Amino acid sequence: MSRPKVLVAMKLVPEIAIDLLRKRFDVEVCDSILVTQAELMKKVPGKFAIFCSPANKIDEELIKTAGPSLKVVGTISVGYDHVDLSAMKKYGIRLGYTPDVLTETVAETTVGLLIATTRRFFEANHAVKTGGWKDVTLLWMCGRGIRNSVVGIVGCGNIGTSIAKKLKAFEISQLLYTSRTEKPAVNALGGKLVTIDELVEQSDFIILSIALNEDTKFIINKERIAKMKSHAVLVNIGRGGLIDQDALIEALQENRIGGAGLDVMTPEPLPLDSPLMKMDNVVLLPHIGSASVETRTEMAILTANNIIAVLDNTVMPKEVQF
Ligand SMILES: O=C(O)[C@H](O)CO
Is 235 in the same domain as 86? Predict the structure, then answer.
C-alpha cells in the first residue's frame, strides 16, 4: 500500500527531521533553498503535507493544485503571513507552525542587530578591511549608546517580551511598547503601554517585533517616519511589509532618521540594486532571526511532528487556530 506523501519545499533540512518524516511518509525534498512557485505547483499534486517556510506562498491556487490529498501545511516559522488562511479553512487544511522554540534566538538577533546598527559595527569593519583606519579622530565611527535611551517595542508578544528583558540589562531610561493588551511581564520591567504614534515620537530605538497582517501592513509609514527623532534607529525583525520601504529609503537618504537594522525586507532576497544596499547607516541581514543551529534544528523537528500529528489524528504540538 502506498504511503502518504510529504513535500519538503527546501533542501538541507536537518536530517533528524527528515528521518522522522521518512518513518511515516514518502518524502520528496526539493533541491533548492528558494523553490519557485512554479516548481512548487509542479510538485504538490497528491501530497498529504507541505513542509514550507515564509519563502513559499501557500495560496488557494497551490492548495487547489495539491488536490484533496492535502491535509496539512507545516511552516518552519512563527509567522504565517505567507499562508492564505481563508483558503486553508475553505479546503479544511490544518496549519502547524513553530512559536516558542525560536523566541530567545530571535531576541538575541534583535539585540545584536540593534547594537551593530547604532554602534556602526559593519561600517567600522568595512573601514578596517579597506584601509580606512588611519588619521582617525576622537569621534570617528562613534554611534549612539543604548544606555539611558528610550526603547520602543512595537508588538510585545513572546519575542518582544524577551527583547525587553534583554535590553533592560543595558540600563535604558524608558521602555515603551505597543500591544493589544497590557503585558504584566513587560510592565514589571518598567514598560509602559503607549500608542504607536507616541512610541515612534518618543523612542530613540524602535523595534518591530509584530506579526504582519491586514492591520499591521505599513504600520511604519511616511507619516510615522516623519514623527521619529532625527537620530532614531529602526530595527525590523518582523516582516518587510510592516514598513513602507520606499518612505524609509527616502528618510534615510535625507538623513531624517539615524539608521535602520533590517533582518527582513521587501522583497527577499533584496535585489542588489536596492538603494538600501548602498547606505552606511543601514545594516541588512538575510532573515536570520532564528538562525542558530540548535533553534533551526528544533524548528525542523517541531514542523515534522506537527505534520505527523495530523496523520495520527492527534493534537498538533503547535497548531495555528483560524
Ligand atoms: O517567522 C519566523 O519564524 C521568523 O521570521 C524567523 O524566520
Answer: no
